[in-house]
Amino acid sequence: QVQLVESGGDLVQPGESLRLSCAASGISGIIFRIYAMGWYRQAPGKQRELVARITSGGSTTYADAMMGRFTISRDNAKNTVYLQMNSLKPEDTAVYYCNGNQYTYRTDRDVWGQGTQVTVSS
After folding, report:
1. How far is it, in rounded angstroms, from Cα 26 to Cα 32?
2. Element of type H or E holding 121
3. Which residues pair with 51 in a beta bridge?
4. 8 Å CB contact between 53 and 61
5. Scanning 4, 47, 92, 94, which has its CA 20 to 30 A from the CA of 64?
6. Sequence-separated (6 or more) residues with CB below 8 Å from residue 30
7. First to last CA, the chain
8. How many angstroms separate the CA atoms of 97 and 24, rounded?
Protein backbone atom coordinates (compact mmCIF):
# COMPACT_ATOMS: atom_id res chain seq x y z
CA GLN A 1 0.00 0.00 0.00
CA VAL A 2 1.42 3.36 -1.06
CA GLN A 3 1.32 6.11 1.54
CA LEU A 4 2.06 9.81 1.16
CA VAL A 5 2.86 11.96 4.20
CA GLU A 6 3.13 15.74 3.99
CA SER A 7 5.13 17.88 6.40
CA GLY A 8 6.38 21.44 6.75
CA GLY A 9 3.14 23.35 7.19
CA ASP A 10 3.31 26.25 9.63
CA LEU A 11 1.99 29.66 10.66
CA VAL A 12 3.94 32.39 8.86
CA GLN A 13 3.64 36.10 8.15
CA PRO A 14 2.97 37.56 4.68
CA GLY A 15 6.10 37.68 2.53
CA GLU A 16 7.81 34.78 4.27
CA SER A 17 8.78 31.44 2.73
CA LEU A 18 8.01 27.82 3.50
CA ARG A 19 9.02 24.45 2.07
CA LEU A 20 6.62 21.51 2.15
CA SER A 21 7.73 17.90 1.81
CA CYS A 22 5.83 14.80 0.70
CA ALA A 23 7.41 11.44 1.51
CA ALA A 24 6.20 8.26 -0.19
CA SER A 25 6.45 4.89 1.51
CA GLY A 26 5.36 1.32 0.78
CA ILE A 27 7.02 1.28 -2.63
CA SER A 28 10.51 0.98 -4.04
CA GLY A 29 12.31 3.91 -5.57
CA ILE A 30 11.94 2.26 -8.97
CA ILE A 31 8.15 2.33 -8.69
CA PHE A 32 8.09 5.84 -7.20
CA ARG A 33 9.79 7.10 -10.35
CA ILE A 34 6.79 6.20 -12.54
CA TYR A 35 4.38 8.35 -10.49
CA ALA A 36 3.33 11.79 -11.59
CA MET A 37 3.17 13.89 -8.42
CA GLY A 38 1.27 17.02 -7.52
CA TRP A 39 0.36 19.50 -4.82
CA TYR A 40 -3.23 20.66 -4.28
CA ARG A 41 -4.77 22.94 -1.68
CA GLN A 42 -8.17 23.47 -0.12
CA ALA A 43 -9.36 26.45 1.91
CA PRO A 44 -12.42 26.22 4.21
CA GLY A 45 -15.64 26.32 2.18
CA LYS A 46 -13.79 26.09 -1.13
CA GLN A 47 -13.07 23.31 -3.61
CA ARG A 48 -9.68 21.63 -3.78
CA GLU A 49 -7.50 23.24 -6.46
CA LEU A 50 -4.29 22.40 -8.28
CA VAL A 51 -1.14 24.14 -7.06
CA ALA A 52 1.58 22.41 -9.06
CA ARG A 53 2.31 19.12 -10.79
CA ILE A 54 5.47 17.29 -11.87
CA THR A 55 5.63 14.31 -14.23
CA SER A 56 7.86 11.27 -13.92
CA GLY A 57 10.09 12.95 -16.49
CA GLY A 58 10.38 16.18 -14.50
CA SER A 59 8.05 18.45 -16.50
CA THR A 60 6.19 20.94 -14.27
CA THR A 61 2.82 22.68 -14.38
CA TYR A 62 1.64 25.54 -12.15
CA ALA A 63 -1.63 27.31 -11.51
CA ASP A 64 -1.47 30.97 -12.57
CA ALA A 65 -1.77 32.24 -9.00
CA MET A 66 1.34 30.30 -7.99
CA MET A 67 3.48 30.94 -11.08
CA GLY A 68 6.75 32.63 -10.15
CA ARG A 69 6.31 32.14 -6.40
CA PHE A 70 6.05 28.36 -5.97
CA THR A 71 8.40 25.65 -7.23
CA ILE A 72 7.72 21.91 -7.28
CA SER A 73 10.59 19.43 -7.40
CA ARG A 74 11.27 15.75 -6.73
CA ASP A 75 14.13 13.67 -5.39
CA ASN A 76 13.57 10.12 -6.62
CA ALA A 77 16.45 8.80 -4.51
CA LYS A 78 14.53 9.90 -1.40
CA ASN A 79 10.99 9.10 -2.59
CA THR A 80 10.16 12.72 -1.85
CA VAL A 81 8.44 15.66 -3.57
CA TYR A 82 8.86 19.26 -2.43
CA LEU A 83 6.96 22.51 -2.77
CA GLN A 84 9.00 25.66 -2.20
CA MET A 85 6.68 28.57 -1.43
CA ASN A 86 8.00 32.15 -1.51
CA SER A 87 6.34 35.54 -0.99
CA LEU A 88 3.42 33.94 0.79
CA LYS A 89 0.10 35.80 0.90
CA PRO A 90 -2.91 35.48 3.23
CA GLU A 91 -4.88 33.96 0.34
CA ASP A 92 -2.39 31.07 0.30
CA THR A 93 -3.86 29.89 3.62
CA ALA A 94 -5.16 26.35 3.11
CA VAL A 95 -4.57 22.68 3.75
CA TYR A 96 -2.01 21.47 1.23
CA TYR A 97 -2.31 17.91 -0.08
CA CYS A 98 0.18 15.71 -1.90
CA ASN A 99 -1.04 13.47 -4.74
CA GLY A 100 0.47 10.74 -6.87
CA ASN A 101 -0.89 8.77 -9.82
CA GLN A 102 0.23 6.14 -12.29
CA TYR A 103 -1.45 3.78 -14.75
CA THR A 104 1.18 1.09 -15.20
CA TYR A 105 -0.23 -1.12 -12.43
CA ARG A 106 -3.79 -1.96 -11.40
CA THR A 107 -3.36 -0.91 -7.76
CA ASP A 108 -2.50 2.42 -6.09
CA ARG A 109 -3.35 4.42 -9.20
CA ASP A 110 -4.43 7.54 -7.30
CA VAL A 111 -2.98 8.23 -3.84
CA TRP A 112 -3.50 11.19 -1.50
CA GLY A 113 -1.74 12.35 1.65
CA GLN A 114 -3.49 13.57 4.79
CA GLY A 115 -2.62 17.22 4.22
CA THR A 116 -0.61 19.84 6.08
CA GLN A 117 -1.91 23.22 7.26
CA VAL A 118 -0.37 26.44 5.95
CA THR A 119 -1.55 29.66 7.56
CA VAL A 120 -0.36 33.08 6.37
CA SER A 121 -1.39 35.87 8.72
CA SER A 122 -0.04 39.05 10.27
Report:
1. 10
2. none
3. none
4. yes
5. 4
6. none
7. 40
8. 13
